[in-house]
Amino acid sequence: MAEGSNVSRLCFIFPNRRSLAFFKKYLCEEVRCLGCPVVAPAMYTVNDFFSRISDLKVSDRVDLILELYDCYKVLYPKVESLDEFVGWGDIILGDFDDVDKYLSDPEKLFTNVADFKAIQDSLSYLTPVQREAISRFISHFRPEVRKSFKGGEIDVKENFLQIWNILLPLYRSFRSALISKGKAYEGMLYRSIAESVREKPVADVLAGVFPETVRFVFVGLNALNECERTLMKKMRDAGLAEFCWDYSSEMVRDPGNKSSFFMAANVQEFPQSFEYDPEGLTAPEIEVVSVPSSVGQAKLLPSILKDDTYAVVIPDESLLLPVLNSIPAHIEDINVTMGFPMKDSAFYGFLSLVLAMQMHLRTKGDEVLFYHGQVWSIFASGIFKHLIRNDAEAQAAVKAVREGHRYYIPEADLRKGPVMDLLFRIAVRDPKSNDASQIRDICLYLKRLIAGIAPLMAGDEAHAVEVEFAKAAYSAIGRLQTRNLGIFPATFFKLLGQLLQPVAVPFNGEPLKGLQVMGPLETRALDFTNLVILSCNEGMFPRRSVSSSFIPPELRKAFGLPTYEYQDAVWAYYFYRLIQRAQKVTLVYDSRTEGLKGGEESRYIKQLEYHYGLPLKRMFANSKVGGDVSDRPVIKTKEDLEILHKRNLSASALKEYLDCPAMFYYDKVKGLKPSDEVSEDLDAGMVGNVFHKTMCDLYSQYKSADDRVSAASLKSILSGRDAIKGRVRANILSELNSSEVSGRDLVAEEVITEYVVKTVSRDLELLTEGGFDSFGIIGLEKMYIGTMEGFSFIGFIDRLDSFRPGEIRIVDYKTGKVGKDDVEITDANAKDVADKLFGSVSKNRPKIALQLFLYDYLVRESGQFSGSRIVNSIYSPVTLAVEPVKEVPLSGEFLRLAGDGVRQLLREISSLETGEWKRTEDTEICKNCDFRMICGR
Question: Which has more pLDDT, 332 or 607?
């Protein structure tokens, strides 16, 4: 900067605040060299520059949607509710913003399709491209433009047509309403300036706002909308503006590269003030690193960042915290320019859980019940754990709720301690009500909650960011509260989300030196020697984002509105401009193929390699997974056997050992159990439990020796199907620990009721066909204990009864699959069945046969029925409708072989010579094993 230069009377306009801050730094260095004080020039971002010129103030998105709805109600008598309008009202706002920023003529664009035929002869004011686009658009509604109904529902085209035909009057009334209140959306503000400089000399427009400024310098802009272009043209023609375009490298200037899509026209229309890089630029050294992990990209940074001369660009905002946590300790000066977005914060996640909890609660009379899913998620929240860390009463309540496994949790069980008392209150009494008083209650509830928990986080530095987000949420809720909105709770939460999602908390740091951490937008007009760009995946960089619009693509293109090609060109310029002066560039991408993520590297990497032929140094990150214990034996000890001899084994325990001795060890020796979770629906095992309990309930009144089950008794049970269903429902509620039966469980209720009816019917059939007048119940869920080879065994027999004198039936209910090898056992096939039972293959193991053997053994061992014939009966309710009860007389040969096999198995378990609890060779068993994580498989 030369001495005596008139820099103080200049005004500099930048694309963002970051480039403005760096310009201030370099300007200060020049002034220091000059040795005399200089009044700083005016400096603005392009958005601030436009806002400074206009008297209008841009309102937030929610205010604009509500204002738009008020205008819409006047124009459309059959107006839908605000709840329905919010979604597509936001789309209309976006379209109006584009129409104004690109100075499209709304009269021509929003042509009334119904009147098209009347005006199609006078379309000379349109360009040929526009006429063709409108004709193509109208063709979608031919051969006639009228209301059409299909099956009583409005046709999709007609629905769109109704909205389209109201857009022009809505656009006019909306703008008038905003102007009358001094408000605007951004595009409206831009258009007002563009129109004012068309009507008045631009020097007069600017003089009133910048009286001391003689010249305006535009620095580092790229894609201009028509409003910006119009203002800059007027300023150029008036000799008020200079233009500095960052358009130097061969890659950026390449006509085949979309990065030149705007810039070539910009440079031609607004010539450069001076030439950049007259000696040309050399291509940077480029490394491409493939990492099979998203967070893994951040964890790679310590091996890349040698000093603080680097800039780390993060297209994926969710990686900000992992990146900050991965910066090496030797880098002390760090500046984060992108801000931490609220939508990725712990507080926003906590607030979302609270809102979801309110939407899923139930009321039963005066009792308020909270759905377990959201309650357990809140319990798992880091913020909630921090809030109750010193509250013993709340911690005890959380423990009790977890151990209770209730489907719906009563309010009284949750309101323990000050935090839980604030949190677990009802705010949404009716999700389907749009009563304004309910919205006021929700606002009051949320504000009280935030006011109560924010002070508990304020003293902890780790939650300083969350406190800032809590303040922003409190403010946003207050703004919505003043609106007195009559909307559904879900709509209120959506509007609140729209207010909160743009919120970001800036980080304190050294802004002009050290390591720079930023998003792609913050890199505009800045250059760095060493660059690291993360998330260089297709769809992330460049970002794949197509905004919803009511304006069809052909019309958008014909009327100069931005399309996907516009977005492609903008992102291409960001990338190629950013790397043009760098010496070293490291591009890192996530190579995982998972769900909708294809693990595809960015198109820019392929362009650098194939289109520009640059030598790329490719690397692949990997890491060794530690903690592999798959080869370590599970040693069998004397203490293990002592434990086993003190416990009761069962048929299922023997099957577990046959499947996998290591699984048997973790379960029966160590007593490890998977953590219980609240079941959403009845699974197969729970269906069996409900059926067993119901059958036990029905026959429990006949357990005494004097009370026999007669045919009349069975007929009485069958005549009360509603009573059976009532017992089934009660048992389902008990099994689920719930207060209601809903969804798929209603189907299960009907199925189990039918199972019970078929079972009782088969008992009645056995009485009738056998010519008996009644049968006796000896025991229900009867427990037997016996010993074998020094081990104690236990068995619970579903039903022990007797139809004939001298014959005892061991009845087993089986709601699952019953195989042939379980029930068709003779002396001829006994060896085959025994071989399958004790073999190494688990898939077709006849486990029911093992259970029946053990039941027979325990009953005989008890000596209770000496001299009686024992018969095994399998009731399989799935097949009782088409097959009779299965009588399973176990052959003497099978009993001998099974006895020998079990004794051999028990001797193997008792032996220390084997040295270990071996793991199964059948990896299919491992897939469903509860212990696979600690086993090492």
Answer: 607
End-to-end Cα distance, the chain? 70
Task: Report d(CA 51, CA 407) in Å as an integer.
Answer: 54
**Higher confidence at residue 78 or residue 801?**
801
DSSP notation for 807-830? EEEEEEE--S---HHHH---TTTH
Residue type, 751: V
Contacts for 621 with CB less than 8 Å, ≥ 6 apart = 289, 290, 291, 292, 296, 300
Predicted pLDDT of residue 142: 47
Label residue 121 by pLDDT band (50, 70, 90).
very low
Q: Of 824, 817, 775, 823, give the one whose Cα is nearest residue 800.
A: 775
pLDDT at 727 over 90: yes
Q: What is the mean pLDDT of residues 620-637?
A: 72
Query: CA-to-CA distance for 614 and 624, rounded, in angstroms?
Result: 32
Buried b or exposed e, range 85-111, using 16+ CB within 10 angstroms: bbeebbebbbbbbbbbbbbbebebbbb
Task: Match 């790397």 to its residue by tokens.
Answer: 579
Is the Cβ–Cβ distance between 406 and 738 less than 8 Å?
A: yes
Tell me what pLDDT residue 705 has.
66
**pLDDT over 90 for what percent of the chain?**
59
pTM of the predicted model, to two decimals?
Answer: 0.75
Alpha carbon separation from 529 to 220, 276, 297, 532 (Å, rounded)? 18, 17, 21, 10
Let me know how many helices (H) and strands (E) the chain has, helices first: 40, 27
Query: Residue 577 pLDDT more than 70?
Result: yes
In 461-555, at which residue ranges do the beta strands (DSSP E only) sit? 504-505, 515-518, 530-533
Lowest mean pLDDT among 126-140, 345-359, 522-536, 731-745: 126-140
Q: How far apart (Å, rounded) are the C-alpha atoms in residues 95 and 168?
A: 12
The backbone torsions φ and ψ at residue 91, rounded to the nearest 5 degrees and listed phi first, read -65, -45
Nearest Cα neighbor of 347 from 380, 381, 393 is 381
| 3-class secondary structure, 185 | coil
Beta-carbon contacts of 867 under 8 Å, excluding residues fewer than 6 positions away, are: 806
Query: Tens digit of pLDDT for each residue in 834-857?
Result: 998 898 877 788 888 899 899 999
Name the DSSP letter for residue 740: -
Rg (CA), the chain: 38
- The per-residue DSSP string of 242-271 comes to EEE----SHHHH-TTSTTHHHHHHHHHHS-
Amino acid present at 20? L
For 384-400, what is each residue's pLDDT tens digit? 999 999 999 999 999 99
Evaluate whether 636 touches 307 at the Cβ level (below 8 Å).
no
Q: What digits encode the pLDDT tens for the residues 192-211?
A: 999 999 999 999 999 999 99
**Nearest CA among 658, 753, 328, 671 for reference residue 515:** 328
Amino acid at 232: M
Q: Are 303 and 522 in contact (CB under 8 A)?
A: no
Q: How far apart are CA 367 and CA 410, in angstroms?
A: 7
